[in-house]
Q: What sequence folds into this?
């Protein structure tokens, strides 16, 4: 297996360190290549201003010094044969920084902290760095909540809308095989009509014929999708929740219709969000 390339995001907060330690313990045994990114952001002064350039240089130097100390600290905590580097990058937003970096550098996954917010944000509406990165990033994003500690990856819950099942299952199983994980596929619906029932039977058939035998599918009857997924996470003793997402339309941003974004704000277990092509 080729060594994976992971991007870790930091703002030097305790939460970002939780996410980085989780990623290191998860992928260091695979001989992964880790790159820590930190945004250098200087706003409000004309870019041609000499003082601005000097300020940017100073901030970048300070970030690099803190980053070097962070790398040494993480290496002391997680031993192994892996690479770990730090890069301060100038950008306007974190999501812009991530999008540009992963577009120009081979990246298998981005890992960052996941923090709950206000009641408005918990409804999945506008705002939130993690949600913005999920929305903009072309590669999978693994969002790690505050109290997460990596121990294993035994159970993966895959919340599906039963579209593009074969393609999405291929992606999930490729990840699951690395850890020998069991994949729990679930679809939540407020009612099971003939269309849903037929789609469920089609998914069952795909699962039965699938080459990986650690997969099962379950239809769940519930009006509240996020509540149903949360309950199933506890039932399955899940280690990570996986969803496939898309770039939000303006209407979705305003009215908060994205299930993935709502789940991101709940932040009970790590969330692996994969962008649909």
A:
């Amino acid at each position: 297996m080729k060594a994976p390339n992971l991007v870790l995001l930091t703002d030097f907060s305790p939460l970002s360190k939780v996410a980085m330690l989780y990623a290191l313990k998860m992928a260091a045994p695979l001989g992964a290549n880790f790159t820590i990114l930190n945004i250098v952001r200087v706003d409000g002064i004309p870019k041609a201003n000499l003082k601005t350039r000097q300020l940017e240089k100073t901030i970048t130097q300070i970030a690099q010094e803190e980053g070097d100390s962070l790398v040494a600290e993480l290496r002391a905590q997680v031993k192994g044969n892996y690479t770990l580097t730090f890069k301060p990058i100038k950008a306007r937003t974190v999501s812009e920084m991530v999008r540009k970096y992963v577009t120009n550098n081979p990246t298998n996954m981005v890992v960052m902290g996941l923090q709950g917010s206000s009641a408005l944000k918990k409804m999945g509406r506008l705002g939130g760095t993690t949600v913005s990165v999920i929305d903009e990033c072309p590669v999978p994003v693994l969002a790690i909540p505050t109290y997460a500690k990596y121990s294993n990856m035994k159970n993966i819950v895959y919340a599906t809308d039963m579209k593009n099942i074969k393609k999405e299952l291929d992606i999930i199983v490729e990840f699951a095989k690395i850890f020998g994980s069991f994949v729990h596929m679930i679809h939540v619906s407020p009612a099971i009509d003939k269309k849903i029932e037929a789609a469920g039977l089609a998914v069952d058939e795909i699962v039965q014929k699938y080459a990986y035998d650690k997969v099962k599918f379950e239809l769940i009857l519930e009006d509240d999708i996020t509540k149903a997924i949360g309950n199933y996470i506890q039932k399955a003793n899940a280690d990570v929740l996986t969803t496939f997402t898309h770039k939000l339309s303006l209407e979705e941003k305003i009215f908060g219709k994205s299930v993935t974004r709502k789940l991101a704000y709940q932040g009970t277990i790590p969330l692996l969000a994969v962008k649909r092509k």
